[in-house]
Amino acid sequence: MIPDLFAPVLGQSQAIELLTQGVKQDRVPPAYLFVGIDGVGKSLAARCFVELLFYVETLNLITLQNRLRQGNHPDLWWVEPTYQYQGQRFTAAEAAEKKLKRKAPPVIRLEQIREIGEFLSRPPWEAPRNVVVIESAQTMAEAAANALLKTLEEPGKATIILIAPSPESILPTLVSRCQRIPFYPLDTQSLTQVLTQTGHGAILANQALLNMAAGSPGSAIASYEQLQAIPETLLQDVSKRPSSYRQALELAKKIAQELDTEAQLWLVDYLQQSYWQQWHQPQIMHQLEQTRKFLLCYAQPRLVWECTFIAMLPRRME
């Protein structure tokens, strides 16, 4: 009897059914595409699915789970987007730990796809098949995507799982070679259950964070952690509209000095939710969209925020 390895995955019954039936009927395709917004369980489901694929042969579930969690199973290759720094690659977690300056988002690189090819060139050692999981597959540049396409055409004894926010975010030629597994935003009950079980029940009291999450517990948790990282005094100052030019300029200076670009972009989202709850003024939402646009274009952050808060002065919004 196959154990319920998908128990940790909540609110994704359709995806679980599709994956489970594929194993039960021995009809596992060479490639899957897990699609859905971030933070709804795609990566967790991929880990559970790998356990299911490998368990069929190994049967020693506890040993198998421990090895997979430690990342030392010889037949699993897990790929994440990376930063390039001084000739080395770092995942987002590694870059944060080393406090590396990050000017551009991480991507799946051509050399990472080539490493997948090398990994799949040998037969599996212990499991019935090799498995490759590619997180944030939408970050692949065209050269990397084309290289992966060649691998998908002849994967050998392997299953490749691509994880992306939508089919449109990756090349159609890749989509056509994968079985699509949809993941959906969680309903309120499932979202509450996940946040409570993971010790993040405090998020349920913050409506702005819940609105930003849009049914994604992962996004809710990430936003909560980002919120905690912002200095309390800055958060208090930015929670209300500036009342003078001087206050607007000082607040802009404070944000530019204390927050990196990634945190500033998050702050734009948070302020949109928070300000809308307070004032319901479309002009402010439009101004913050402009702020996001200019920050993404690498405009001078302090100047961007100065323009934002000056435009939000009460007499200018009347």
From TrEMBL:
InterPro entries: DNA_Rep/Repair_Clamp_Loader, P-loop_NTPase. Pfam families: DNA_pol3_delta2. SUPFAM superfamilies: P-loop containing nucleoside triphosphate hydrolases (SSF52540). PANTHER family: DNA POLYMERASE III SUBUNIT DELTA, REPLICATION FACTOR C / DNA POLYMERASE III GAMMA-TAU SUBUNIT. This is DNA polymerase III subunit delta. It comes from Anabaenopsis arnoldii.
